[in-house]
Structure formats: C-alpha cells, structure tokens
Specification:
The protein is α/β, with parallel strands linked by helices. The chain contains 11 helices and 8 strands. The chain binds NADP nicotinamide-adenine-dinucleotide phosphate (NAP).
Length: 266
C-alpha cells in the first residue's frame, strides 16, 4: 500500500514517523510532497527518492493521499495536485475546518476520510475522531483506522458535524489541560515552591490522576469524593470551584471552541 503525505510539518512528520515505527508502512511505500526544504531535511527516515517538492505523476500512484497542510494553504495545493489525482483515489484529510464536500469539489474526487487528530499524536498518545464520505468501503476505513491508530486511539463518527465537536474537545483539549496545569504551577510557586518543584508536583499529579482514573471503573465525580473527605482541604477547594461555577465556565469555553470550529468550516 503506497501512502503519500502532502505537507510534512508537525502533523505530517508525526504521521510519517508513526507509520514507519509501527512498521505498518515500509519506507519504500511512503512518499512525501513538501515544499519547504527545511522540513524535508529533518526526515532522514525516508529515502530522498521518495520526497518531492513539486507535484507529479507519483501522486496518481498512491493508494492513500494524506492532506496535512494548513487549511489556508489548501486552495493553492488543490489546484497544484488536481491534475494528477485520480477520481478513485482515497484522500485522508487532517486539515482542521475543511469540509469533506469542499475537498471532493476542489480535488475532483469521490472519496474522502476526514479526521481530527491532536498534538499528543506526536508521542503515540493522540486522540483522533474520524468520519468519511459515501463510497468509502469498510475495508478502507479499517485501513485508515489502522494508520491513524499508530498515533494513538480513534473513534469513528457517522455525522461530519461531530468533527467540530471533536475539535472543541480532543483537538483543542491538550491546551485546556495545560491551562489548568499552568494555573496550578503558578499557585504552587506563590505558596513557596521553586518553579521546577512546582512543575514536578503538578505534572506528576496530572499523570497519576489520569492513570489512576484509567485503571478503574470509578467516574471523575466518584474519584473527587474519594479524595475529598468531609471538612477537609480538598472539599474546601471544590466548594470554591462550585461557588465560582468553574464547570459552567469550562463548558462556556468548550462551546466557544465548538462554535468557532463551525464558523471556520462554513
Ligand atoms: N498541529 C496540531 O496539533 C493539529 C491538530 C489537528 C489538526 N491539525 C491540522 O494538521 C494540518 C497540518 O498542521 P501542522 O501543524 O502540521 O502544519 P505545518 O507544520 O505548517 O505543516 C504544513 C507543511 O505543509 C507545507 N505546505 C504548504 N503548502 C504546501 C504545498 N502546496 N505543497 C507542499 N507542501 C506544502 C508547509 O510548508 P511551508 O511552511 O513552507 O508553508 C508546511 O511545511 C493543519 O491543517 C491543521 O489544521 C493540526
């Protein structure tokens, strides 16, 4: 199976490296189209013969074409590759906000899988939500899922609108976690820890809490109850969060991301 990745920036490289590390794709079957030499120079895993800086006939030979350029670069790219792309070719887009219909129209193709990965894909801990146009066969969807799962876990959704919801939850999600972590780190420093100690305390607390949660059936609320004894320190903090309606504020933030994702895609 020949795979072509178009755009070898953060995500394109992550995909290339994950496919090769998992041995799901061999270096001979992996092709890159990337206009920036700076980017391709750092891709030593792929032989120079498989790396192109201009569109050409190699595009027509790929079984799967992965679009990993910035959404604003897609119209120009579409014009460049349209003469080479065949109607039957399967295209996987990871571009945020570009609808399947628009990809089909701009490339003159029939079948598109669209996915929304997130940053931890870089370390094999990504979360990807994906959907597809009509005409993509089950067998092909499994192939795409196998490819995507080399970067972490994935969920298939029937309704393309759920990709906007996924953008707001798992796509942007790592930034919300860092936001909460940063607030805790700054507070720890105010309480007297050095910056490095504060970071260690907070990092390890997040990691421990998530792993514990993953290894058990308890819900987040049940875990909160386990940590917070009546009249204790955790309860004091949670009472303040509740009084300030922190969870409502978080919901408002996530819906702002959701609405923005819908706006960008319209
Ligand atoms: N980063 C994330 O966490 C994340 C998460 C979910 C989805 N995504 C999506 O993933 C896509 C890629 O994001 P990224 O962060 O990897 O972007 P990036 O680092 O900018 O990589 C895109 C690469 O594509 C190259 N490129 C642009 N136009 C091209 C063309 N016509 N032909 C060949 N190469 C071209 C760019 O070169 P130049 O730099 O020279 O323009 C750049 O090296 C975006 O659509 C984004 O929405 C990213």
């Amino acid at each position: 199976m020949k795979i072509l990745i178009v755009g070898s920036g953060n995500m394109g490289k992550t995909y290339a490296r994950s496919f090769l590390a998992s041995r799901f794709v061999t270096p001979q079957d992996l092709f890159i189209l990337e206009k920036s030499h700076e980017q391709t120079e750092t891709l030593s895993e792929i032989s120079g013969g498989n790396v192109f800086d201009k569109p050409g006939l190699f595009i027509s030979e790929a079984d799967v074409v992965i679009l990993a350029v910035k959404p604003q670069d897609f119209p120009v790219l579409a014009e460049q590759i349209r003469p080479f792309i065949k109607r039957w070719q399967l295209v996987l887009s990871i571009m945020a906000g570009i609808k399947i219909e628009s990809i089909i129209n701009q490339l003159g193709i029939n079948r598109v899988v669209r996915c929304m990965p997130n940053l931890p894909a870089q370390i094999g801990m990504g979360m990807t939500v994906f959907t597809s146009s009509a005409g993509v066969e089950k067998k092909e969807l499994f192939t795409i899922q196998n490819l995507v799962n080399t970067t972490g876990k994935s969920v298939y959704v029937e309704d393309e609108n759920m990709i906007d919801a996924a953008t707001a939850i798992s796509g942007s999600g790592p930034a919300y976690v860092y936001y909460f972590m940063e607030a805790m780190i700054q507070t720890a420093i105010k309480m007297g820890f050095s910056p490095s100690e504060a970071e260690l305390l907070v990092n390890q607390t997040f990691m421990g809490a998530v792993h514990l949660h993953n290894q058990n059936e308890l819900t987040c609320n049940e875990w909160i109850k386990r940590v917070a004894s009546r009249g204790g320190t955790t309860e004091a903090a949670v009472k303040v969060f509740n009084a300030l309606s922190v969870s409502d504020e978080i919901e408002a933030g996530l819906f702002a991301a959701y609405n923005r994702a819908k706006e960008l895609g319209s």
